[in-house]
């Protein structure tokens, strides 16, 4: 297969790269851009570890091909913090013990960011529904829900 040239913006930075048509977005981010915060989990779109924001909406990067993103804007977990200053969601996860091993955390953070931008004052039930597609094998989700609740209202950037 012939590589194709794509142009996209990732975490505010413009990139132009030649990619093989079969290269998934998660592999492109990790291997071509060295943004390893996006994790490869199930590779079937079930676990949520590879979740990124595509034009502001959470998507499973293992299910998309990089060539589909020509002209798109992507945000990965590396794009949340502002230099040394953590994003309010990251700060809430830290303060409320919303992570254990950290494998699921990038996907949860980005899912929560998109959710809270549309639902600034969610109930615990709404939070649980929003993160239902992100699997965490270490926790019972209690501290994750606490963290997202705590971040509510502070997610406007």
3D architecture notes:
This protein has a 5-stranded mixed sheet with strand order 2-1-5-3-4, sandwiched between helices. It contains 5 helices and 5 strands; from the N terminus they run ββαβββαααα. The protein has 157 residues and is α+β, with helices and mostly antiparallel strands. The chain folds into 2 domains: 4-79, Ubiquitin-like (UB roll) (Roll), CATH 3.10.20; 88-151, DNA polymerase, domain 1 (Orthogonal Bundle), CATH 1.10.150. It has helices at 25-32, 88-95, 105-118, 124-130, 142-151, and strands at 4-10, 13-19, 51-54, 57-60, 73-75. The protein is globular, with a radius of gyration of 15 Å.
Distinctive features:
Ubiquitin-like (UB roll), globular, 5 helices, 30% helix, 157 residues, DNA polymerase, domain 1, alpha+beta
């Amino acid at each position: 297969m012939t590589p194709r040239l794509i142009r996209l913006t990732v975490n505010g930075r413009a990139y132009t790269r030649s990619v093989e048509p079969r290269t998934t977005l998660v592999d492109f981010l990790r291997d071509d851009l060295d943004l390893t915060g996006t994790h490869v989990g199930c590779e079937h779109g079930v676990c949520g570890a590879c979740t990124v924001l595509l034009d502001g909406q959470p998507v499973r990067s293992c299910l998309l091909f990089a060539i589909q993103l020509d002209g798109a804007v992507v945000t990965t977990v590396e794009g949340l913090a502002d230099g040394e200053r953590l994003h309010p969601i990251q700060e809430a996860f830290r303060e409320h013990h919303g992570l254990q091993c950290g494998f699921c955390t990038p996907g949860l953070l980005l899912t929560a960011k998109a959710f809270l931008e549309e639902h600034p004052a969610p109930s615990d039930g709404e939070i649980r529904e929003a993160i239902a597609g992100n699997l965490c094998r270490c926790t019972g989700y209690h501290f994750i829900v606490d963290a997202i609740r705590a971040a509510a209202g502070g997610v406007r950037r």
